[in-house]
Amino acid sequence: MDPMTREIIGQILGIIATIITFASYQMNTKKTLLIAATLATLATCLSYFFLDATSGFALNIVCLIRNLMFYFQNEKSRFNRISAYVLALIMCVLGAFSWQGPVSLLIIIALAVNTVCMSYGNPQLLRKSILFTSTSVLIYNAFVFSIGGMANEAVSIVSSVIGIIRFRKDKQKEA
Predict the structure, then answer these.
(1) HSE of 96, CA atoms in CB hemisphere, 13 A
(2) CB-based contacts of 68: which residues, under 8 Å, 6+ apart?
(3) No. of helices (H) and no. of strands (E), the chain
(4) Residue 118 and residue 125: Cα distance in Å, rounded?
(5) Is the pLDDT reported for residue 157 higher than 70?
């Protein structure tokens, strides 16, 4: 496949991931959020593959596995946290093997932190962590020039803020 076709496919997949991501952060249960996040992660993973962003591709494969594991785990299980730290460690190792230079640290740290935050099963905590992690991944996406990826992270940040405010208001109404 010629480089221009790969670039176009990668950018389109990044835009699809953006649309799915926006919807995912408006969901208020762990299960629905994880389903949408898994679909967005799959599109992101494929986007990175076509854009030759090796760190992003390798780490998002682990994110796919993570999302599926967290979907099927019992929320009260200690295994959630243990598996999150193991997955974060795997991300660090894969990040080292897929090293693209110091910019890889941004996505390695961001996805490892995001993985640990997901293990708590708290959508609000996850939304708050996204403010840090998406900013880091946004910079990584600028480096690998993923237009969809940059848009995805910008939408993630805005959508997370909306979700934080929206569900905080719902909680205040219940009290």
Answers:
(1) 5
(2) 38
(3) 7, 0
(4) 8
(5) yes
